[in-house]
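Take one protein record:
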Amino acid sequence: MLRFLTAGESHGPALTIILDGLPAGLPISTTAINADLARRQAGYGRGGRMAIEKDEIVIQGGVRHGMTMGGPVAMLILNRDWPSWKTAMAVEAVDEKDAAALRRVRLPRPGHADLAGALKTGTHDARDVLERASARETTGRVAAGAVARQLLERFGMQIASHTLGVAGVQVPREPEIPWDRIAAIAATSPLRCVDAVLEAEMQKEIDRARESQDSVGGVFQVVVRGVPPGLGSCRQWDTRLEARLGRALLSIQAVKAVEIGDGCAAAARRGSQVHDEIHYDAGRHRFYRRTNRAGGIEGGMSNGEEIRATAFLKPLSTLPRPLRTIDLVDKTEAQATVERTDTCVIAAAGVIGEAMAALTLAEACIEKFGGDSIAEMERNAAGYRRQLEEY
């Protein structure tokens, strides 16, 4: 089983990541990890924190001479903003008289974890909650996902994402946007959108929201190609691939809905308009579909087509012009706390979605092909490919 844990707070000294279950002998590129971390920090609509941080990975265990050893991979990402928060986030007890330096949060933000977490833990300082609930935590996920992506590439799988919408500006989802257009999005694209005209309109929506001290959400899609049929299982509810992928994407802060393939649109259509007819390519010895409305997953298992998952991101809950709230201590009406924030994070959310998809599929790949080393996994995968060709 592949699993990962992250630890650390948004304004603490560092973020820690442990990725457990990787086979031995997998080559690891720190350059590739740092490249994904940089992609997470980019995108139109980001705030001041991105100008402070320059996320770089430090591998502290599990890798020797550029390859995994079979044990847990431990990674560290330093928070450059930490010196400004040494008192507020100090590990040891501090002088309680300096209230400003402690940066306590008594005014919970609507839409954030502040109030629910404070009620859950009994604290009257929501700083204890929001530091961990912050999307800064996703930096660790992207690092872990970048390692998982390197495993998937050994088996011919590639992952990309693109922005489908910001606020009311939406890219048509039909016909399906081909992989080549998604993969060809320039690194300098401000919102990682295939349509430059609509992307400019999306930027205007973000500008209008920023000018009115508000925020906007959006829609991103993760696409994975080269996925062999048979990853995941119909054996139990929690082994189904779409359930695992949906859970992974819904775990991303601010994501409120996920669709696989046609998703919600399929509910309004007849079966003949939804299900992908099956064809056979005798020359390549493979079954295939000319359409991919199922999003690459049928019956809880990958079917050999591209996996397409679309996620819907709500507007961020920290607003420069705050909403009304209630003071946690004296229960009076007030305006919510204003933390440093972004106007729109849709481009970064797509990168985080790639990471969560990579981790989900890497786990399914390890389950399917097994082995304590990458060489053993590759032998098992080669045998499975022969089985498919001889079917």
